Amino acid sequence: MALTLRNTKGSSLTYTEMDSNLTYLEDLSTGVIVFAQYTVSTLPDATINNGGMIAVTDETGGYTMAFSDGTDWRRVQDRAIVS
Predict the structure, then answer these.
(1) Does the reported pTM lie above 0.90?
(2) For the chain, is the Cβ count within 10 Å smaller at the N or the C terminus?
């Protein structure tokens, strides 16, 4: 599902829901995407979010982006499994 929102300054945000837990916002005026944030203990199921991207706030080494390979959530920078 995608929904476009407009703020009072005239810029648009697109809300996209990939499943009931995994969402992101995109500011259409700047192209900035804001990904859903999770802790390691609250990661959504990687098997139903294949190809999804999220932000992990408390991964080893700090805040990082991660993607689902259909089995595990992997850190973007080195493909290591989020743990």
Answers:
(1) no
(2) N
